[in-house]
Fold this protein.
Amino acid sequence: MTLLAENLSFAYRPGTPVLRSVSAAFEPGQVTAILGPNGSGKSTLVRCLLGLLAPGEGRTAISDRSVYSISEPERAGMMAYVPQRPSIAFGFTVADVVALGCGPGCPAARARALAEAALEAVGLAHRAEEPFAELSMGQQQRGVLARAIAQLRAGAGGGPQALLADEPASAMDPRHALGAMGLLRDQASAGRVVAVVLHDLTAALRFADRALLLDDTGRVAAAGPVRDTLATSTLEKVFGVRFTRLADGGVEALVPTVPPAAR
């Protein structure tokens, strides 16, 4: 059930690689944080893992099947995506948007029930019949997370499943950001692969089991258990700023302590 990236390289323009020979394993039952500076290829890696982008070299696979060999309908039952910035083109209600994640093969009544349960989980059940476009950006992010949860529940059949999220809580207030990260942990506890792009190192330290740290050339700088990967010495090399690890009441935080070094 492992989701793999093997020697993955990708460039949007020839001669300008974004990812360089990235290899990583995302295991079921664990939350893996994908971290790195702006432009290090985090979002690009997620899109390659989903099969939305084709790498120039290497491959992505789930349960040893190439992601690109899996039909789109089957892939939709296996892999859900939470983008950082939701984009809904039509005047759908919140419930409509979430139910759409269940796919055309899901009976309407079941899709509606799954949507209602997912909206309850993210605290948006009371907004179900309102236009999605009228929600704040943070609420829209919660709605798209609900859609991904409903999508995986609709596709659940004993096979491998993965949820990949790109800065899913970036516009949320602290309360709902904590709730969203808790829901991602719940998905991992249910046996799914969960990979999440984050800039919040403290959130990664608190909620992730493992971390994949990319540097600004699109290479893997470090990978492994989150506490080991986010060593302050490693973070300083990657981000060009010193960090201090603080602890209070059993909760740890990573705090930058000096301005970024000149590059």
